[in-house]
Design goal:
This protein has 8 helices and 7 strands. With about 200 residues, the protein is an alpha+beta fold. A 5-stranded mixed sheet has the order 5-2-3-6-7, with helices on both faces. Strands 1-4 form a two-stranded antiparallel sheet. A hairpin with a 5-residue loop joins strand 2 and strand 3. Helix 1 (about 5-15) packs antiparallel against helix 5 (about 135-150) and helix 2 (about 25-35) crosses helix 3. The longest helix is centred in the C-terminal third of the chain and has 16 residues, at about 135-150.
Length: about 200
């Protein structure tokens, strides 16, 4: 077992989710009660199947897809920043169970292993499938990459629009929330930090 693999196994134990079995029958019944309480006529042809559709949609948005971190030996000893920009993010605000949508910029400074680039997007998607705050999502992605890669540095920036702000409450469409999580050299080395933030357009 490689060091990166053992680190990921340990991370999975430390961050194991409690049982999250989805009971679609209960969810559909609860959705029907909620929609009825909000005055929606579920006897109408167009809404009769809405509780089931609502339950399945939310279950899909809250079920992280399984994936494996694919890493390769860093044979060339590459030690510069690896950055993937504009990874789509779709998650749910835990306070209102309304979506927040945007993009993530994810980068790292390789150690002994490099990561298959698609796995950066997979990591974002995996952690986005929860009801949570944007701050927590940003931190979880960075923490996962730091421990699974044994990277010299990790940086994550998320820019997202929260529909709990744009569709209700303050009603400020177009506003974005920006969060960041930086570890290792991306946090401690001013030049490396500045390079990362400039490339993610948040250093302007």
């Amino acid at each position: 077992m490689t060091t990166a693999t053992s680190d990921l196994a340990r991370w999975r134990v430390e961050h194991r989710d409690p049982s999250r079995a989805v009971d679609l029958d209960r969810a559909e019944a609860a959705a029907a009660d909620l929609l009825s309480a909000l005055g929606i006529d579920l006897a109408a042809e167009g809404t009769a199947a809405t509780p089931g559709r609502m339950a399945r949609a939310l279950a899909e948005m809250l079920t992280p897809p399984a994936y494996e971190m694919t890493t390769f030996p860093n044979d060339e000893a590459y030690d510069e920043l690896v950055l993937v920009q504009d990874i789509p993010v779709q998650s749910l605000c835990e306070h209102h169970v309304l979506p927040f949508v945007g993009v993530a910029h994810v980068g790292y400074l390789p150690g002994e292993r490099i990561l298959g680039l698609s796995k950066l997007a997979r990591t974002v998607e995996h952690h986005a499938r929860h009801a949570q705050t944007q701050e927590r999502l940003t931190q979880r992605i960075a923490d996962h990459l730091l421990h699974s890669l044994a990277a010299k540095g990790v940086g994550v920036v998320i820019e997202a629009e929260h529909t709990c702000m744009t569709l209700r409450g303050a009603r400020v469409p177009g506003s974005r929330t920006v969060t960041s999580a930086l570890f290792g050299r991306l946090r401690d080395d001013p030049a490396t930090r500045a390079e990362f933030l400039a490339l993610t357009r948040t250093g302007r």
